[in-house]
Specification:
The complex is a heterodimer of chains A (130) and B (137). Chain A is built from six helices and no strands. Chain A has 130 residues and is mainly alpha-helical. In chain B, helix 1 runs antiparallel to helix 2, helix 1 packs across helix 3 and helix 1 runs parallel beside helix 4. Classes of the chains: A mainly alpha (130), B mainly alpha (137).
């Protein structure tokens, strides 16, 4: 830390270490956290789908409604939608400029939240047998 | 990135912009970097399929029968096969990024081996998954 840097930044700003964007490395770290979580969850998801016996309504509901399967699916949906929202934000910030950027970022957040809410609601409805 | 808004006339009009994908000779690392982002977008859009299937299953037998008919068609199988590869490729690409995050894997041969391994591994895992899944039908 140089003498110059010390003088320009306030002591509290230096301690927080969040920089001018006020968010610091939050997205960077969360993207890696969810990436690591996604590895076992997505492998479990592929195995669940691959092993799904037959395709009739009753057996499919029984499988998805099993506590272990339902919990894994909900965890995957939460982790994956956080991960994909941050990832798409990076892509938008790379390619979309001007007013369209704000709209694209809004749409990105709405999409991720809608996907998460719909998937979790469906799994819970199936699991609780409603 | 090439986002400079040069005026249509005057000395600034013909300034070169920063080069992008089209001017470089393709390398394994560059190709796998592009694949990682492309598979990310495919996974993003593909979540609609998962939600559609889950909501159909939650809605009732008739809605679910339509979904199963759609996914059971040749086009449905093609999409699911492609989606399997996309999942594995993005997953292995992510592992590659996590290895890089530890400061490892940047050597000239390591980089290329990791890039090749991502593609070869994702194709192998996709074929393995489908062989297992179809043999259980």
């Amino acid at each position: 830390m140089s003498e110059f840097d010390f003088k320009i930044r306030t002591p509290i700003g230096r301690v927080r270490g969040l920089g001018s964007a006020k968010a610091g490395t939050e997205h960077f770290w969360r993207q890696r956290l969810t990436a690591i979580a996604n590895i076992p969850l997505v492998l479990a998801f592929v195995i669940i789908v691959a092993l799904m016996p037959g395709s009739d309504f009753v057996t499919a509901r029984a499988l998805i409604g099993q506590p272990l399967v339902a919990i894994l699916l909900i965890l995957l949906v939460i982790s994956a939608t956080i991960h994909m929202r941050i990832g798409m934000q990076v892509i938008i910030e790379d390619y979309v400029h001007g007013g369209g950027k704000v709209l694209a970022l809004l749409a990105n957040t709405f999409f991720a939240v809608i996907i998460a809410a719909a998937a979790i609601f469906a799994v819970l409805k199936i699991a609780f047998g409603m | 990135m090439a986002e400079a808004k040069a005026p249509a006339t005057g000395p600034a009009a013909n300034r070169p912009l920063s080069p992008h994908l089209q001017v470089w000779r393709w390398t394994w690392t560059m190709a796998m970097s592009v694949f990682h982002r492309a598979t990310a977008i495919a996974l993003y859009v593909g979540t609609i399929l998962l939600v559609y299937w889950l909501v159909a299953l939650a809605s009732g037998p008739e809605t679910f029968a339509t979904a199963q008919w759609l996914f059971g068609s040749w086009l449905g199988y093609l999409v699911l096969f492609g989606y399997t590869w996309v999942i594995f490729h993005h997953c292995l690409g992510g592992v590659r990024h996590l290895i890089w995050d530890t400061g490892r894997g940047f050597g000239p041969t390591e980089r290329f081996n990791l890039a090749r391994g991502t593609l070869i591994g994702s194709i192998a895992l996709t074929l393995l998954t489908w062989i297992v899944a179809l043999s259980l039908r």
